[in-house]
């Protein structure tokens, strides 16, 4: 309400005073630069909340080495390149062990290959979960950031509506003043 009163005083000062002063006695009209300067000065005093930042920048600043590693493992482990490469390695492993001419280092049930795959799964799964948990936290941060942006936009819309309401009141006073002056000059 305080900003509404300020806008009302400002619009009355800018619009009502020069018109009333100009009718019929005065010859001074305010310059557009003076009017725009007053409006810009009042607009600079609008209430704004804290600065809204890019969530990606905030997230990059806060990442630890472990979080970066987990994201990298998730990016590589969840790609078609990784699936194709791992499939080629496993097929090559099986083919070399089945067709080996001299010695089979991992004979048919491929126990050594299963051991390596189990170790890979044992280390990859927790890293994928860490990455997913961090992404969930990032989504919460992004949702909060969206909330802050919406709240700031609502404050700005409310300030513009207050300003328009004050202008409506000022224009109504101007019309009433003009009507009174016109009636006064018509009768006299």
Condensed summary:
With 188 residues, the protein is mainly α. It is 80% helix and 0% strand.
How would you describe what is shown here?
- With 188 residues, this protein is mostly helical.
- The protein has one domain.
- 80% of the residues lie in helices and 0% in strands.
- The chain has helices at residues 2-22, 32-43, 55-62, 65-77, 80-99, 111-187.
- Helix 1 runs parallel beside helix 6.
- The protein is rod-shaped, with a radius of gyration of 36 Å.
- 4% of the residues are buried.
- Residues 18-40 and 42-49 have low confidence and may be disordered.
SSE order and pairing:
Blueprint: H1 2-22, H2 32-43, H3 55-62, H4 65-77, H5 80-99, H6 111-187
Helix pairs in contact: 1-2, 1-6, 4-6
Would you tell me the structural class of the helices and strands?
mainly alpha
Largest sheet: none
Output the number of helix runs.
Answer: 6
Give the count of structural domains: 1
Got a strand count? 0
N-to-C SSE series? HHHHHH
User: Helical proportion?
Assistant: over 70%
Please state the CA-atom Rg, rounded to the nearest Å: 36 Å
Low-confidence residue ranges: 18-40, 42-49
Shape, principal axes of CA atoms = rod-shaped
What is the CA-CA span between the terminal residues? Answer: 41 Å
Mean pLDDT: 79
Strand content: under 5%
């Amino acid at each position: 309400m305080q900003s509404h009163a300020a806008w009302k005083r400002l619009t009355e000062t800018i619009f009502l005073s020069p018109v009333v002063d100009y009718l019929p006695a005065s010859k001074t009209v305010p310059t557009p630069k003076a009017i725009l300067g007053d409006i810009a000065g009042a607009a600079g005093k609008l209430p704004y909340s804290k600065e809204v930042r890019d969530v990606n920048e905030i997230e990059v600043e806060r990442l630890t080495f472990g979080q970066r590693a987990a994201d990298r493992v998730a990016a590589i482990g969840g790609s078609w390149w990784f699936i194709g490469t791992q499939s080629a390695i496993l097929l090559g492993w099986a083919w070399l062990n089945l067709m080996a001419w001299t010695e089979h280092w991992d004979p048919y049930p491929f126990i050594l290959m299963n051991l390596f795959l189990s170790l890979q799964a044992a280390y990859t799964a927790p890293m994928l979960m860490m990455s997913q948990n961090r992404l969930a936290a990032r989504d919460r941060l992004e949702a909060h950031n969206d909330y802050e942006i919406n709240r700031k936009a609502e404050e700005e819309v409310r300030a513009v509506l207050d300003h328009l309401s004050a202008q409506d009141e000022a224009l109504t006073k101007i019309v009433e003043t003009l009507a009174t002056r016109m009636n006064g000059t018509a009768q006299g």
